[in-house]
Amino acid sequence: MSHVVTILPDGARFPVRPGETLLAAARRYGFAYRVGCREGGCGACKLELVSGELVYSKTVAESVLSDQEHARGICLPCRAVPVTDVVIRLDATDRLRRGPFSDRLAKRDLNKADRLDVPAESELSDSNNVPAAKLS
Amino acid sequence: MAVMRLGYLHARVTNLAEAKRHYVNTLGMQVVLEQDNRLYLKCWDEWDHHSLMLEEGGVGLIKLGYKVAKAEDLAYFEQKIEAFGVRTTRMSAGENLAVGEGIRFTMPSGHLMELYHEMEFTNTAVGLVNPPLFPRHLVGVGVPRLDHCLLKTDDIPLAERFCIEALDFKPAERLVSELGDTGELMGTWLFCQHKTHDIAFVAGEQGRIHHWAYKLENWDAIRHAGAILSMDDTSVGFGPDIHGLSRGDTIYFFDPAGNRNEVFAGGYETYQDFPTVTWTADEIPRAVSYIGREIAENHFTVDT
Ligand code: FES
Ligand SMILES: [Fe+2]
């Protein structure tokens, strides 16, 4: 079963393919936010991991994501591969951007995977500012 | 007399096998030697032993090697660098594989630099007698030569003054916040012989590198490079476009460890009497991206 990524505070949801990084999946649907090299070298893509588990299948330099950051729940989406459903939160100074079909394609795939369920309230700690309409 | 050219660059990569895929299969550099956790590479039109050394572990620049024309130039620059107030140490032949003796110092910008005058001559891929225009079976982009690098520093005036006073570089183009005495220097592109630029600095964290560049023949070669980069799913940062500053045709992209590379074509030749060109900050869009006039928000902030 594919794992689902939720990006706060927007609430955008999309499934990831097995072994696919968070960023690769987001880009596949046309979702974008502030990133850099997309190759694990610059740290520009760092985000807060709110819930869920990620693994790093490629080496991540300590100078890019330190062990302390990792322990604090900071993740590197261009390298991080979800192994459960995950919820991540964009930096307050950034904003999620969409491609022309982002939500439609994501909804279609969530539907196919039978994962169109709305995430539990507890998963989205600030779900009050996520209008339900954003999910459709 | 100035230093001659950027001869070698040492950098870190997180994974050597992936780096090899990028630099060999995508860019078309040739493997000179693979040794422990190091990979030595050269481009097809380079005659010295290597121009790039990649070491596994981390990411970013290790050091730069600039070649000088004559053995006695080493003492000349040693004296000038010391006179500037920067400490130098002597390096002996063989400390760097295939490289002769030289001097080593950390520039005021925080980057380790070495000057040397000898590297083992191993010839270009086309040879020196009646050479064909290019090797018949180039791989990928087929980069001919390493060209220049753009470094980050928190003190551009100092970095520039060091290159001018200690290494005899000259500024080809400069980026200032505004014209006049109140203008702040935000970037400088310097040449040492006849290239458009051989080294450059923009504002940022000490010791970091924005990119290193390969010189391609022309705009068509940039187009071809862009096609290869896409086929190989390389992360492209910006371009193709034209730099107003330097009149260079460009694409920026990242290696699999996140180090930024550039393919660069066009530009112009410089001379000892080349008059410095100035760009003002309000024209940064044209200076960087002459056609699109839009710069990715991360273009100057992302580095390694
Ligand atoms: S975008 Fe550079 S580390 Fe993720
Ligand atoms: Fe460049």
Task: Write a structural description.
The complex is a heterodimer of chains A (136) and B (304). Chain A is α+β, with helices and mostly antiparallel strands and 136 residues long. In chain A, the strands form 2 sheets. Chain A has a 5-stranded mixed sheet with strand order 2-1-7-3-5. Chain A has a two-stranded antiparallel sheet with strand order 4-6. The longest helix of chain A has 11 residues. Chain A is globular. The model of chain B has no long low-confidence stretch (mean pLDDT 97). The longest helix of chain B has 14 residues. The radius of gyration of chain B is 18 Å and the shape is globular. In chain B, strand 10 and strand 11 form a beta hairpin. Chain B folds into 2 domains: 114 residues, Roll (2,3-Dihydroxybiphenyl 1,2-Dioxygenase, domain 1), CATH 3.10.180.10; 157 residues, 2,3-Dihydroxybiphenyl 1,2-Dioxygenase, domain 1 (Roll), CATH 3.10.180.10. At the A-B interface, loops of A face loops of B. The site of fe (ii) ion (FE2) has 6 residues of chain B, from strand 9, strand 13 and strand 16.
Q: TL;DR?
A:
The complex is a heterodimer of chains A (136) and B (304). Chain A is built from three helices and seven strands; from the N terminus they run E-E-H-E-E-H-E-E-E-H.
What's the SSE blueprint?
The complex is a heterodimer of chains A (136) and B (304).
Chain A: E1 4-8, E2 12-15, H1 22-28, E3 47-51, E4 54-56, H2 67-71, E5 74-75, E6 80-82, E7 86-89, H3 102-112
Parallel strand pairs in A: 1-7
Antiparallel strand pairs in A: 1-2, 3-5, 3-7, 4-6
Chain B: E1 5-13, H1 16-26, E2 30-35, E3 38-42, E4 52-56, E5 60-67, H2 71-84, E6 88-91, E7 102-106, E8 112-116, E9 145-153, H3 156-167, E10 170-176, E11 185-191, E12 199-203, E13 209-215, H4 219-231, E14 235-242, E15 248-254, E16 260-266, E17 277-280, H5 284-288
Parallel strand pairs in B: 1-4, 5-8, 9-12, 10-17, 13-16
Antiparallel strand pairs in B: 1-5, 2-3, 3-4, 6-7, 7-8, 9-13, 10-11, 11-12, 14-15, 15-16
